[in-house]
Fold:
Amino acid sequence: MPNTGKSSFLRAVSEATPKIGDYPFTTIYPNLGVVKVANEDSFVIADIPGLIEGAANGVGLGTEFLKHLGRTNLLLHLVDICQDKEDVYEDIKKIEVELTRYNKDLSCKERWLLLNKSDLLPNELIEELKLYLLSKLEDRIKIFTISALTGSGCQELIYQTYNWILEQKKK
Ligand SMILES: Nc1nc2c(ncn2[C@@H]2O[C@H](COP(=O)(O)OP(=O)(O)OP(=O)(O)O)[C@@H](O)[C@H]2O)c(=O)[nH]1
Ligand SMILES: [Mg+2]
Structure:
C-alpha cells in the first residue's frame, strides 16, 4: 500500500536514501539498499512502490511493480497501523488478493507482516490489533511491530530476516 513507510524502512535499515513523502506514490521506481549484519555479511532489500486495488490488472502501474516481487526471496509487507483495525485488515487482504491475482507463486511466497508506525499508537492497542489480525488471518502469518521513524523493532527484524536467509541457504 502507498504511504505505509516502505522507503522510511529502507532508510532505517540500510544506507540507501530514498525519497520519503507524506503522500502516496512518492516512490515510483524500486529502490535497493544493502543491509549490513554481523560478520560483515549483508543482504539486499528492495523498496517496491505501493500497490493499490486492481494492481494485478495494471491499475497504478501495478503489474510493473508486482513483477519485481517475483525476484525476491521474502516479502516484507508493511502496513500502516494508524487506522481502525478493520481497515488495517482490509488493507492486508487487498494486497493478498492482488498477489494471488497476479501470480499464484507470489501468494505462496514467504511473507511477513510489518505493523509500522508503532510510535503513534499505545502498546495496548498494538497488542489488541495483533490479536485481532491473528484471529482473522488463516495462516498464522508472522507479525512484527516496528517504527521506521524511530527504528524501534527494526534491528530485531533484520536479525530474524538474516537468520531466515541463512536457513534457506541450508535447504
Ligand atoms: N510516525 C511515523 N511516521 C512514519 C513512519 N514510517 C513512515 N512514516 C511517515 O509516513 C509517510 C510515508 O512514508 P514513506 O516512507 O514515504 O512511505 P512509502 O510506503 O515509501 O510511500 P510510497 O512510496 O508513496 O508508497 C512519511 O510522512 C513518513 O515520515 C513511522 O514509523 N512512524
Ligand atoms: Mg516510498
